[in-house]
Design brief:
The chain is mostly beta strands. It is built from two helices and 29 strands. Its main location: nucleus.
Length: about 400
């Protein structure tokens, strides 16, 4: 660590390398925090979590009981042991509460004053955080599995919605209507995700085993259909142009948007080049996935080599994204984990499970990292987890002051 500081001070190394190396060390030291609890509000399973990107302080959760809870993650007491309190909630007695299970919650990417939620009650709701009232409601003909707002878009306010039908629908928050429909899948849409790099690029995953990339400005269909065989002829005709050999129920771009991770019910996770659509053939081994709906996993941000956190039964499996190495299993839940979200400011992880609990995983700081005086370690000599990834560095996170 001292050599990193010295190199940064003298200008020999890029200042980002120290930051990324330290972030990597913290991620590799993640463990269940016994000193931090998240207040238990949900009476049934927790399906979805999201932390606002402006301050990284407030977290939303959505449950199978239709309840939405807003938590404050900051330790205002300054005590070692504390509980992340619920600031407010949309409970069963709330007039705008969802009737059935909430499948996705997401903060508006640029401000904490608004968030969205979607449910099995076939509605997508836009909420005013300050009044906790539904400002707008989009109603669909099919059950909603997933929705997503672009974290990078500056020229549109489109929300992509995946339903039990084969069509992807785009809702415009400015006009309050469904602007257009993307057709190409044959079965229900289980996951959708906008690229964090390009405003108009959208990825969709379906039960038809296919993953498609769209430029929503085009009217001629999708840009790419990902092929696990990279164009080579497969023995089974039905597996042609398929990303997995089962349902594809999870999507997640890397923080720089250059790669896309997908998971399927064939118990496989695959890494794709998001520009060419090429399967990078990284082998993650068996990734147990028996979810009948969308699986919400996450990827780290700001590390030397990014890490994927994937719900794996009652545990969370941690993988090195670019090498495929299975690093560890985070154990603490009593039932199946359905979602997890990464807090990039402090390299923390929060997970939600069918046991109704939300757990906090934080870096273990009990054992100090040895100094370079005792153990010489530079970035070039370090393991692959401390080296720069093959892709370019992700953009810096921009924080602005916002209040609820």
């Amino acid at each position: 660590m001292l050599s990193f500081l010295s190199a940064r001070q003298s200008g020999v190394e890029d200042p980002l390398r120290l930051r990324r190396a330290q972030s990597t060390r913290r991620v590799l030291a993640l463990e269940l925090n016994k000193d931090r609890d998240v207040e238990r509000i949900h009476g049934s399973g927790v399906n979805t979590l999201d932390i606002e990107p402006v301050e990284g302080r407030y977290m939303l959760s959505g449950g199978s009981d239709g309840v939405i809870v807003l938590y404050d993650l900051e330790n205002s007491s300054r005590q070692p042991y504390y509980t992340c309190k619920a600031v407010c909630s949309v409970g069963r007695s709330h007039p705008d509460v969802h009737k059935y299970s909430v499948e996705t919650v997401q903060w508006y990417p640029h401000d904490t004053g608004m968030f969205t939620s979607s449910s099995f009650d076939k509605t997508l709701k836009v909420w005013d955080t300050n009044t906790l009232q539904a400002a707008d409601v989009f109603t669909f003909e099919e059950t909603i599995y997933s929705h997503h707002m672009s974290p990078a878009a500056t020229k549109h306010c489109l929300v992509a919605v995946g339903t039990r039908g084969p069509k992807v629908q785009l809702c415009d928050l400015k006009s309050g209507s469904c602007s257009h429909i993307l057709q190409g899948h044959r079965q229900e849409i289980l996951a959708v995700s906008w690229s964090p790099r390009y405003d108009y690029i959208l990825a969709t995953a379906s039960a038809d085993s296919r993953v498609k990339l769209w430029d929503v400005r085009r009217a001629s269909g999708c840009l790419l259909t990902l092929d696990q065989h990279n164009g080579k002829k497969s023995q089974a005709v039905e597996s042609a142009n398929t990303a997995h050999n089962g349902k594809v129920n999870g999507l997640c771009f890397t923080s720089d948007g250059l790669h896309l991770l997908t998971v399927g019910t064939d118990n496989r996770m695959r890494l794709w080049n998001s520009s060419s659509g090429e399967n990078t053939l990284v082998n993650y081994g068996k990734v147990c996935n028996d979810s009948r709906k969308g699986l919400k996993f996450t990827v780290s941000c700001g590390c030397s080599s990014e890490f994927a956190f994937v719900p794996y039964g009652s545990t969370i499996a941690v993988y090195a994204v670019y090498s495929g190495e299975h690093l560890t299993m985070l154990k603490g839940h009593y039932k199946s984990v359905d979602c997890c979200v990464f807090q990039s400011n402090f390299q923390e992880l929060y997970s939600g499970s069918r046991d109704c609990n939300i757990l906090a995983w934080v870096p273990s700081l009990y054992e100090p990292v040895p100094d370079d005086d005792d153990e010489t370690c530079s970035v070039d000599q370090a393991g692959p987890e401390l080296r720069d990834p093959p892709a370019s560095l992700p953009p810096e996170c921009h924080h602005c002051s916002a209040t609820i």
